[in-house]
Known about the structure:
Elements (H helix, E strand, L loop, with lengths): L3 E7 L3 E7 L5 E8 L11 E2 L1 H19 L6 E8 L5 E3 L9 E2 L7 H11 L1 H8 L8 H11 L1 H6 L2 E3 L1 H10 L3 E3 H5 L4 E2 L4 E2 L1 H7 L8 E3 L4 E4 L2 H7 L6 E3 L2 E2 H9 L6 E6 L3 E7 L11 E4 L6 E7 L3 H11 L5 H5 L13 E3 L17 E3 L7 H28 L4 E5 L6 H11 L3 E4 L4 H13 L6 H8 L2 E5 L3 H15 L1 H13 L1
Parallel strand pairs: 1-5, 5-15, 9-12, 16-22, 22-23
Antiparallel strand pairs: 1-2, 2-3, 4-7, 6-8, 10-11, 13-14, 16-17, 17-19, 18-19, 20-21, 23-24
Amino acid sequence: MKPLFLGIDVSTTGSKALLIDELGTVLGVTVNEHSISTPRPLWSEQDPQEWWDASVKSIRQVMAQVGAKGEDIKAIGLTGQMHGLVMMDAKGSVLRPAILWNDQRTAEECKEITDKVGFEKLLQICGNKALPGFTAPKILWVRKHEPDIYAKTSHILLPKDYVRFHLTGEYAVDKADGSGMILFDLKKRDWSKELLKTLDIPESWLPKSFEGTEITGLITDGAAELTGLKAGTPVVGGGGDQAAQAVGVGAVTPGIVALTLGTSGVVFAATNAPLIEPHGLLHAFCHSVPDTWHFMGVMLSAAGSLRWYRDTLSPGMNYDDLLAPAGDVPAGSEGLLFLPYLTGERTPHPDPLARGAFVGLTVRHTKAHLTRSVIEGVSFGLRDSMELIKNAGLGQIKQVRVSGGGAKSPLWRQMLSNVLNSELVTVNTTEGAAFGAALLAGVGVNHWKSVKESCDATIKTLENTTPQSGAVKTYEEFYGKYTALYPALKPTFDSLAE
């Protein structure tokens, strides 16, 4: 069999294994699910052993699906959920359930980090504010609330890197995922000695960091026996899920922006330098592409807003049937605006108390108007991130590559193109992060000379959507009205939350 490359994606919901051939053709995909524990309000945890058990099953299943043997797979790339905390003792045993990216218990620790380091210094070193989702405040929470666990700790890993540990026996992390812990020096692309000293976190606990295409270890005999892989097969750095997703759609050079229109919405832009948004309103991390960084804006309820709307007002209705009448409503929904803050917001308003709203309702408005206003509101919310990225120094945006469930709608794609005033394209790859991890694996063993070469060889653009000048002008006016809503309604949101 010709050479194959394996991508493993350790997401929140399951461990996926994907095999591609030397041309980038996806030959097989399998997923095995994880369970999530919420033992207290705001808590979100998982048992790391589930990640490994699910990964073993998925690897074996995809190899059987394709008819591949261990020796056919030339390299393995890893990706997965970012920011989770796995604490291990000196023998490599897990000390407590992993605290996940969506856990919200660490508000006090975020304030502690900001007070100790200083807001400006923290931003300049790691490129980000201290937010509850990140790893560093989780470490401080364990120190404060579970001192016995903290005292036994010798190693800290991120979720996918726990699977890497089982595959290779190595403690390692890629620089994209590592920078999401907010303990990285963004410019130096490695752990910040200053941050670690200020926060009193032992540097010896942290794994060695690697570029996304570097080999981090080899499959051990024990892992080979469990998975069917061949002992000695290289495992490369890979990347956190968003960085690997960007590789999977070809957003690896400045000017090509990846927009993911899933339950949440992500705008991802590669940069050639460690740029930082002056107020910390964008995430700034290392890319999984060597010597490359990226900006990222996240809205919490993107296609999730449309799902809520459908499930609440038209349960069971097909999305195509729901959206079709909205195509006959003029741009701007005849003066109806929707705020998509159904689960709070992250970019540009890091506010868990923000709420959704319809504004401008009249008796003239029909269900079709409501539908259109929902997807217009989400599109305006994604533009917020795009505006921040442009103003933070990215420069010209040549093309937006859109993926995710919402991107299947031609109406929504055209609307986004008009709202962003940018060319919008879909691509032939739909497996996102796992596909990107497999490409990084191929680059790691020199099957492709660079990440860009791997993307150019395997990723093709499909549907192309260009802005319509009349709608662009209309949306420019309505976007200004949209951006005025949050400041006006913020006091109301806060009082309702109380």
